[in-house]
Write a structure and sequence with these properties.
Layout: E1 7-8, E2 12-16, H1 22-28, H2 32-38, H3 46-64, E3 68-73, E4 79-86, E5 95-100, H4 109-123, E6 129-134, H5 139-147, E7 151-156, E8 165-171, H6 173-178
Antiparallel strand pairs: 1-2, 2-3, 3-4, 4-5, 6-8, 7-8
Length: about 180
């Protein structure tokens, strides 16, 4: 049994990713938009996905108590995407991110899951500010980030990454005090 929190929305269950999600993670991380907007992680097999989950996802949960959550549709139990809070060594602060399988895009699941994970960051983990990074051509991601209260701050480059990224930031300390 996992000691980590799960969350719900009207339509979704957001639960911590685990090794049982390897096939789903493999599929998601190899979608055209993931590869174009987020970048390849060289995940080509179930074994690669399991290694990624162990080394990146589970290790972060063990270290900080939050991480990548699989978005599962309540109506049919389908794994449709992921949304989470990421403690990236190359980015100071906590990063919020999301990705969905193509057939589940444009249905509001991204905003729904990101709003719930943002609330969890504030209410459950005491995180008062969030960052997000995206590439300039990913306009839908930018709009989603703005819908949940983040604002464009500046362009940055991460270490060992040639591509310029847009850094979004949101300070939610007032929301934390209200709860």
């Amino acid at each position: 049994m996992q000691p980590y929190l799960s969350f719900e929305t009207d339509r979704l269950i957001l639960r911590p990713s685990n090794l049982d999600d390897a096939a789903f993670q493999l599929e998601l991380m190899n979608t055209p938009k993931w590869l174009d907007y987020i970048g390849g992680r060289d995940i080509k097999t179930i074994e690669d996905a399991e290694t990624y989950i162990k080394e990146k996802i589970i290790s972060q949960f063990e270290r900080v108590g939050f991480g990548n959550y699989v978005a599962i549709r309540k109506e049919d139990g389908m794994k449709i995407g992921a949304c989470g809070l990421y403690d990236r060594p190359e980015l100071e602060g906590v990063d919020i991110g999301f990705a969905f399988l193509p057939e589940y895009e444009h249905s509001g699941y991204g905003v729904e899951s990101a709003r719930r994970i943002k609330s969890a960051a504030i209410e459950d983990f005491g995180i008062t500010s969030l960052k997000a990074i995206t590439i300039e051509r990913n306009v839908r991601s930018q709009r989603l980030l703005e819908k949940i209260g983040l604002k464009f701050e500046k362009y940055i480059r991460l270490p060992n990454d040639a591509e310029e990224l847009m850094l979004y930031f949101g300070d939610f300390s007032d929301e934390n005090e209200a709860n």
